[in-house]
Design goal:
The structure is a homodimer of 204-residue chains. With 204 residues, chain A is an alpha/beta fold. Chain A has 8 helices and 7 strands, in the order βαβααβαβααβαββα. In chain A, a hairpin with a 5-residue loop joins strand 6 and strand 7.
């Protein structure tokens, strides 16, 4: 079984979490990884209907997502969590629960996020029509020591994803690829074979 | 990746769901399967805090468990769900969501369950102290066509588990074991190797 891990994308609305999640998902698929994206908004409809945006409800939602991440991670899945997750304490609890946890701060300035205003929410929030809107009428506690910082104001999505993949390789969550003469990436065969022998022995 | 599936144990309190779940978990582990048990009571504390025992709340809880089962099943895990799940409609929705769904009716008479009274709840319920208690003050809609019926009043837990394993083998959720001269079970080597080659090819 490959090693499971959770890449946890945290950042304000419009910072680029979903975009990075999509590109990272493809990159991990291309490595032969089993991948699951848990998007905060989607998960809310399945397991957190009725919860609002108070600190308590946000934290409850984050811990439910973390619970699902922990189950998938334990079974060898590469999980990508994408949720604002504004409170440092809830993220710390998610980290403790999941173990193999890679926190990525998807970072851009409030001005840039409001300029993008992907969902048209900043305009409303700035008119005071949305209570509990992160970074406007609610706090966002930026991670102090994230494993990776993706600066979506200055980096392309490809650059951000490359940084995440590099971190995963460095810390052995992913096997590094070996480039052939044509520049195509391959997993190192010797390592692959010995891992498969182990998996085979373990399952008999 | 091995095929994922969910064995869904439904039955009244005290019917033996947890006991069968434990033994089935061991049997599947011994086959080299990646297994996760989702016990209704345990899952409630993680993803359904605040939900009660009205029909609506029960159904919401079942659909949340089913959502998690579907994610794990999709990634090749053998999931065992153990929850009373008294309403046929919610079970049908779980089946539709999960796909590879094996419904097991963990069945014993109300008298037998009340005699066992593992959690001391039947005594209370029969004194009228527990509203919404399944099979006393709330309905239990027994499955009409479960894939397996485990009669825990007449069968040993080993017999019930053997019936479930036999069903899983017959329907190719599990590879059948081949017995050697000493009576030990082995997976058929030819099949194993070809599956591993496929998995290997698929991941490059």
């Amino acid at each position: 079984m490959p090693q499971g891990f959770t890449v946890w994308l945290t950042g304000i609305s419009g910072s680029g979490k979903t975009t990075i999640a999509c590109h990272l998902e493809q990159a991990l698929h291309a490595r032969g990884q089993s991948v699951e994206v848990l998007d905060g908004d989607v998960v809310r409809t399945h397991i957190s209907k009725g919860l609002g945006f108070s600190r308590e409800d946000r934290d409850t939602n984050i811990l439910r997502i973390a619970f699902i991440c922990s189950l998938l991670t334990k079974h060898g899945v590469a999980v990508i969590g994408a949720a604002i997750s504004p409170y440092a304490e809830a993220r710390a609890q998610a980290r403790a629960l999941i173990g193999a946890f890679v926190e990525v701060h998807v970072d851009c300035s409030l001005e840039e996020a409001a300029r993008r205003d992907v969902k048209g929410l900043y305009a409303k929030a700035l008119r005071g029509e949305l209570p509990n809107f992160t970074a406007i009428s609610d706090p966002y506690e930026a991670p102090e020591h994230p494993e990776v910082r993706a600066d979506t104001e200055r980096e392309s999505v490809e650059e951000s994803v490359a940084k995440i993949i590099a971190f995963l390789e460095e810390h052995r969550y992913l096997e590094p690829l070996i480039l052939d003469a044509d520049g195509n990436g391959h997993r190192p065969f010797a390592l692959t074979d010995s891992l498969e022998r182990e998996a085979q022995d373990g399952s008999r």
